[in-house]
Amino acid sequence: MASIIFLDSPVGSGFSYARDPKGNDVGDYSSSLQVQTFLNKWFTDHPQYLSNPFYVGGESYAGMVIPLIAQYISEGIEKMQQPLINLKGYLVGNPKTEQKYDINFRISSAHGFGIISDQIYEAAMKSCKGDFVNPVNQLCAGLLCKIENLIAEIPDGHILYKKCVLAAPKPSGDASPRKFLLEESTHINAPPSRPDLDCFTYGYYLSYFWMNNNSTRIALGIKEGTIGEWIRCVKGLPYAFDMPSSIPYHLNLTTRGYRALVYSGDHDLIVPLLGTQAWIRSLNFSIVDDWRAWHLDGQAAGFTIAYTNNLTFATIKGGGHTAPEYQPEECFVMARRWLDNEPL
Description:
This protein is of the alpha/beta class. It has four domains: 1-93, no CATH class; 100-151, no CATH class; 167-232, no CATH class; 262-344, Rossmann fold (3-Layer(aba) Sandwich). The protein is built from 13 helices and six strands. Strands 1-2-3-6-5-4 form a six-stranded mixed beta sheet, with helices on both faces. The longest helix is centred in the N-terminal third of the chain and has 18 residues, at 28-45.
């Protein structure tokens, strides 16, 4: 179906590192330029892949930078910079785009999911005047606090799942790595808190031990001495969130002929699909294939709509944040059909 390059970005995440600590000080624009530089060097070293159709993809916050990275690549193509990458488009899942959409529609989505009542929703709409990002008065701020407390009762990544320990890295004395992976070469410094076995985040917990196993590092070709401990969610990187919106890049790329697939897990309350639908509508593209179900094994796997300028939006039924974590088969089939230029 595809050859995939998985890239740890920004620098400091995963197994990536900077020789100079100042190199970790990046933001949306600078890290996207680094990705472009990486791709240019990679294709220079592997020219046999240059003729392959190339797509950039990412999930969640990557929704901010993926269109920007694609923009930088497209500008390089226009300037005939070598190597000439065969960029065809991009895909983003549960994508952050702009606070006006991502946060504002969190309230209406919570209401639609039955997390907040009609009365609270109507009061918030009236007192906040539709702006839930910047509270305009004390009543609005109080209602937003009440709403956040109600949302905190459930996991906003997938509202139907148990609320569990996130399995972020924290010192914990109750976890023995040998209990889970019987490998003599496992060296653990500070394992994360252990979720219950039936928690979705248990996989995150196990990933900590797997990625810090010496045999895993050897298989991945990690340079010895570069990263002492792999951490799933690195806190405190000096990252500048300096791009207010990715919508102008979505507009620019799609109107210039690049294909785009935007998809959302329909049980995600972190980046709700209502907000994603709203910014897509703001592009004012005409509909070429109206809202309909798309299917897998005779069952609806989600719903989709196609617009002019090769923009497709799709929902993943039962998906959360992010959709492929919860519904891998559906997302695989969706991606395969889209990459093959087939209707979903």
